[in-house]
Design goal:
- The protein contains 5 helices and 9 strands.
- The two termini are 59 Å apart.
- The longest helix has 41 residues.
- With 289 residues, the protein is an alpha+beta fold.
- Strands 6-3-9-8 form a 4-stranded mixed β-sheet, with no helix packed on it. A 3-stranded antiparallel β-sheet has the order 5-4-7, with no helix packed on it. The chain has a two-stranded antiparallel sheet with strand order 1-2.
- A hairpin with a 6-residue loop joins strand 8 and strand 9.
- Helix 1 packs across helix 2.
């Protein structure tokens, strides 16, 4: 289920929901939570850009991955052994390189809909709700007293109000009814037009394109490789027919200027400074005593 989506496998959503429920349940056993956390971490390992692979791209056995998986299975006896699973992870990427071993700017074509191999939805982190203000308790005697005062005041105000004439009231009601009838006639076609436009927009949003453009370098899943092709008007063509991992490209227009992908470091991350190595130990003599 690693890097799988609901479009290809229906049970992905149910499995993730089970892990999430076990992790959030306060009454669940500690060991059950530990297992759910490890399982959920494996599904989302490497930013959802890696998969477990015990063999190389050429089909040969990858001894480091095999040993890593064997040691990981012993984490039950000593939990730090769980970190050995990182030896089995292999990046699921597709990187095009030119003759200078640099990444040119171009797009791969995936003949599938975007939702087929898209990233799974991110886990929603619900923020703690703000405490609501508790209503102030009101005694029954206080409520009765206030209601009595309010009723008395309304009775006094009603005696002071002037009586509206029946003829003026009927004339005003007739004018209001005519205005409402005209407004409903004008609003009816407008509402129907807006509803039709809204349904049309929803239909356009639901429709997905049959192809997906992937910028170089791209995330390419193992099951997606057979759908990857090069655009007909693309400047580059692969030297080998196998489009997986790092692909060496041949430039069909070498006279034109090459645009290279610029790798930038995020602004919030600073480059780590290398620490000075410790000095060598002073000379000493070893004795068996």
């Amino acid at each position: 289920l690693i890097q799988d989506t609901e479009v290809r496998t229906q049970k992905v959503k149910d499995v993730r929901a089970i892990f999430d429920a076990v992790i959030k349940d306060k009454h669940e056993d500690v060991m059950a939570k530990f297992g759910a956390i490890i399982a959920s971490s494996i599904l989302d390992a490497g930013g959802r850009n890696v998969a477990i692979s015990l063999s190389t791209r050429g089909g040969h056995k990858k001894m480091s991955a095999i040993v890593g998986m064997a040691v990981f299975c012993q984490y039950w006896y000593w939990f730090p052994l769980a970190h050995f699973i990182s030896l089995t992870f292999s990046p699921t990427c597709l990187i095009g390189l030119n003759k200078d071993i640099k990444m040119p700017v171009f797009d791969w074509v995936s003949n599938t809909k975007p939702s087929t191999f898209d990233y799974p939805p991110m886990t929603e982190v619900k923020t703690a709700a703000a405490p609501t203000k508790v209503a102030t308790a009101i005694l029954s005697t206080t409520a009765k007293t206030e209601a009595r005062k309010k009723g008395k005041k309304e009775a006094e105000d009603s005696t002071k109000m002037d009586v509206v004439k029946e003829e003026g009231k009927e004339a005003k009601e007739g004018e209001d009814s005519e205005k409402k009838a005209e407004e409903t006639k004008d609003e009816a076609p407008a509402e129907s037009g807006e509803k039709a436009e809204g349904e049309k927009k929803e239909g356009e949003k639901k429709k997905e394109p049959n192809t997906t453009m992937l910028s170089n370098p791209a995330r390419c899943l193992p099951a997606q490789k057979k759908f990857i092709t090069m655009a007909a008007d693309c400047r580059y063509e692969p030297v080998s027919k196998q489009l997986k991992g790092m692909v060496l490209l041949r430039d069909k227009r070498p006279d034109e200027e090459v645009e290279i992908v610029q790798v930038t470091v995020p602004a919030n991350e600073q480059a780590q400074k290398e620490e000075d190595e410790p000095p060598p130990p002073e000379p000493f003599e070893y004795t068996e005593d």
